[in-house]
Amino acid sequence: MWLLTLFSLVLALVLPHIQAMHMIDPQSTLDCHRRLYSYTVTQRDSQGRTCRDTINVMSCWGRCDSNEISDWRFPYKRSYHPVCLHDSRELTTAILRNCDRDVEPGT
């Protein structure tokens, strides 16, 4: 018996509000943004029959204005590299709805 276990990311990002994707210019933004990604997943049983479905996972994307400044002390530079971070992760199990005929239970 197979169970498909998926990790979905639950985000609470730096931004206090969420902007609509069509309002964000990817060429000029320097912030972290939430985005819903869709994936098509497939699970096979021992006979090769499959179950498949589309799952949605919330994640983040963005660019950061980073820099390094030389310094006479070790490590000879001062770095500033902000990144988008996830606040938490949540383990989720998805039940795949589109299965071949006679697929083994639990696939």
UniProtKB/TrEMBL annotation:
UniProt key word Transmembrane helix: no
Lineage top rank: taxon: Eukaryota
Residues of the signal peptide: 1-20
GO BP terms, alphabetized: G protein-coupled receptor signaling pathway
Gene3D superfamilies xref list: Cystine-knot cytokines
Annotated GO MF terms: hormone activity
PANTHER family hit by this protein: GLYCOPROTEIN HORMONE BETA 5, ISOFORM A (PTHR11515:SF13), GLYCOPROTEIN HORMONE BETA CHAIN (PTHR11515)
InterPro entries: Cystine-knot_cytokine, Gonadotropin_bsu
Keywords, sorted A to Z: Signal
Protein name: Glycoprotein hormone subunit beta domain-containing protein
Keyword Signal set for record: yes
GO cellular component assignments: cytoplasm; extracellular space
